[in-house]
Amino acid sequence: MSPAYVHQALTLPGPLPLDNGQALEDVQIAYETYGNLAADKGNAILICHALTGDQYVASTHPVTAKPGWWERMVGPGKPIDTDRYHVICANVIGSCIGSTGPSSNHADGTPYGMRFPVITIRDMVRAQVALLDAMGIARLHSVVGGSMGGMQALSLAANFPDRVERVLAIATTSRHSAQNIAFHELGRQAIMADPHWRGGDYYGEQNAPDSGLAVARMAAHITYLSEEGLTEKFGRRLQDRPDGQVGERAFGFDAEFQVESYLRYQGSGFTRRFDANSYLYITRAMDYFDLAEEHGGMLADAFAGHARGKGARFCLVSFDTDWLYPTADSRHVVHALNAVGAPVSFVELSAPYGHDSFLLDVPALDRVVKGFLDG
Amino acid sequence: MADLRPDLRPDLLAILDRIEPGTRALDVGCGDGVLMAALRDAKQVDARGIEIDGACVERCVAQGLSVVQGDADHDLTFYPDGAFDYAILSQTLQTAARPDHMLAELLRVGRRAFVSFPNFAYWRMRWALASRGRMPVTRHLPVTWFETQNIHHVTVKDFEELAGSLGITIENRWFFTREREIAGGGANWRAEYALFEVSGTTG
């Protein structure tokens, strides 16, 4: 984390009501925009990021200096064409890349820590809509998101049906399964078991719960890949040993297999840009996500605002190797949309990379995204 | 409008001609969406599709069409009663697990249905089977018996009989041979494939 960097942000004019009954005051939303907003403000596309993503969808990340997380998808002439569309991407509330979250200061001048209210996906979406209000954008051309971003896209469609014309939800679900919750709990427990976590009150201390956060990231990262992808990339290959011996077993617990050092690298890199408490809050928000439950138990009722084609057009995309949010999850949403007569497309794309396929080089996804947005 | 037409198979052209502008249609087994695109562009039809082949679905979505990847044998049940003015099943009936159930489903979700299928009583088929004693491979049924997706070979007479037994009204029928429409006389042996427009008993 680099709290020193100043992200472009907007402070919401009023309190943000939350699902838990409280309201959050002085909410700051950090965001990036790309392309020009048309005079009629009709070309705005909101991109919602995934769990550990951020607003730097198509520009260099100020902390890591890495390219934007969807740079291959968003830009001039790209599937989400910033020559045509005004792309907005905001950091979700609860996160740590400039939007209000547990590392932000409470009214008393010290960080919230675990005093930050437990939030939901719908709370994140309320904040996004408040940002759009502040920008004077009444109706989005599209909302686009993968994974947790897809949950927000569906939640926005369900709760603010008049605010969007097209909804593109990729590799996502309408509710978290027991298995999804179980993996998240593993990550949270790893963080809370780290002695440096200190009940969430570690800001300003010398050490943050980086070990716990790294373990959480490692566990989650496995769920983002596929067995096929991992086997292809690493197999059972061993690391070269420090003494230069190639592929020899050292009979110890250092990262011996290449897949181990890959995960360790992913884990440690993550702690430099992410806050452990934010990880707790955002995974919790995802676990609570159940769009049907929010609407009386019937998923179709969640999309009542789009009945008989009077609302938005939808497109859902799944990947055949994604076992975190498998194709059946997307089909479930598609059937609910069919039941209310909403125009919906659905395609299961073939890609070897598991859940992370939506971020990687899958040319078929580019064609679907472009076709759906421009069509 | 005219430039859309040369690409269309004659049965699809007949469907395009019959469908009223501004209506809602579901194309079951829509392939790469050629009929849906024509319906949308020529008649402002709100066209939706179901297609099992992911590559075809991808091409549909890339044209801005609303197509769901799925298996018509199972997925029609997720559409509400009377959701469409028309349900279309072109050259797919013979691949359905239960063509009778499929017909009933088509007329549940659609007020009317268009169904086209290769006629297995076509004389060339009969001739091939009678003279060579082998399952025919023709221009219209180009795949050998063990590879074919066609699991319920049907004839014009069979279809008319099934419609009768299901209480389905045949509103119109078209017959085609060598990509041209032919008159209805002796269709059961003269037609290479057939198109029926049907409606349910309850309208």
Automatic annotation (TrEMBL), chain A:
Catalytic residues identified in the record: 147, 322, 355
Name residues in a coiled coil.
none
Task: Spell out the InterPro entries in the cross-references.
Answer: AB_hydrolase_1, AB_hydrolase_fold, HAT_MetX-like
Enumerate the GO terms in the molecular function aspect: homoserine O-acetyltransferase activity
**Subcellular compartments:** Cytoplasm
Q: In which pathway does it act?
A: Amino-acid biosynthesis; L-methionine biosynthesis via de novo pathway; O-acetyl-L-homoserine from L-homoserine: step 1/1
Q: What keywords is this UniProt entry annotated with?
A: Acyltransferase, Amino-acid biosynthesis, Cytoplasm, Methionine biosynthesis, Transferase
Question: Which catalytic reaction applies to this protein?
Answer: L-homoserine + acetyl-CoA = O-acetyl-L-homoserine + CoA
A GO BP entry is:
homoserine metabolic process
Q: Name one GO cellular component term.
A: cytoplasm
- Gene3D superfamilies hit by this protein: alpha/beta hydrolase
Q: Give the E.C. number(s).
A: 2.3.1.31
For the ligand (substrate), the binding residues are 217, 356
Q: Any idea where the AB hydrolase-1 domain is? A: 43-359
A Pfam family reported for this protein in Swiss-Prot or TrEMBL: Abhydrolase_1
Q: Which family does it belong to?
A: Belongs to the AB hydrolase superfamily. MetX family.
HAMAP family from the UniProt entry: MetX_acyltransf (MF_00296)
Q: What does this protein do?
A: Transfers an acetyl group from acetyl-CoA to L-homoserine, forming acetyl-L-homoserine.
Q: How does it assemble?
A: Homodimer.
What is the name attached to this protein's record?
Answer: Homoserine O-acetyltransferase
Name of the encoding gene: metXA
UniProtKB/TrEMBL annotation, chain B:
Q: Which residues cross the membrane?
A: none
Q: Which Pfam families did the record assign?
A: MetW (PF07021)
Q: What's the protein called, per UniProt? A: Methionine biosynthesis protein MetW
Source organism lineage? Bacteria, Pseudomonadati, Pseudomonadota, Alphaproteobacteria, Sphingomonadales
